[in-house]
Amino acid sequence: MKIGRCFPSSAFFMVVIAGAWSLSPVRGDDLADFKNPLDNSPMTFELKPGETETPALKKFKQTGTNDYRSDAEALAEGKKLYTANCIICHGADGTGKMGPTLIGKDVIYKQVLTDPGMFSLIYGGASGAMQSFSRRGMKQDQMLRIVAYVRTLEK
Ligand code: HEC
To answer: What CATH code is assigned to 26-152?
Structure first.
């Protein structure tokens, strides 16, 4: 009897959760989005000499989950990095200047809706003015912090 009463309500709850998940504007878990935005080929991420794979970075590469999204210190660092490297083209609120918007769903490369997709694009670059930040010397852990910060700009 107890199970009979309990089951329908928990099933209902699961449906609500699944519905909210699929409606959420950004998802952080799509491993298939670790790819080159220009040709969709899978990407590999080389560590530079002296660069270490932090625990958050390691977990991110394995699971697609970006723990920095809920880490105040990492978000503060991400904001500094974004201000120094990205604001000039994407604007303080991320809605774009000479570069396109980084928030909302109206993006050029759909992969940037997930954290693995945005990370890949920052690492390897896209076309024109959007150059590879790996080649410009940025560490992968810093890119992960920037992605986390950009998500806070989402309304
Ligand atoms: C010199 C200008 C410039 C700078 C600096 C710059 N970007 Fe870009 N960014 C662009 C342009 C232009 C594009 C569009 C590229 C294309 O169409 O292939 C772009 C595209 C992107 C996209 C894909 C957006 C979409 O709609 O798919 C992301 C994500 C992005 N940039 C993030 C960043 C981040 C994060 C930084 C700082 C680390 C940064 N950019 C720095 C100019 C810039």
So the answer is: 1.10.760.10
Of the given ranges (11-15, 46-50, 95-99, 110-114), which has the lowest mean pLDDT? 11-15
The CA distance from 133 to 12, in Å, is 45
Binding site membership of 102 for ligand 1 (Cβ less than 6 Å)? yes
Answer whether 121 contacts ligand 1 (Cβ < 6 A): yes
72 alpha carbon – ligand 1 mean position (Å): 24
Distance 18 CA to ligand 1 centre (A): 32
pTM: 0.86
Read off the tokens for 110: 């759909």
Domain layout of the chain by residue ranges? 26-152
As beta bridge partners, residue 42 has 35
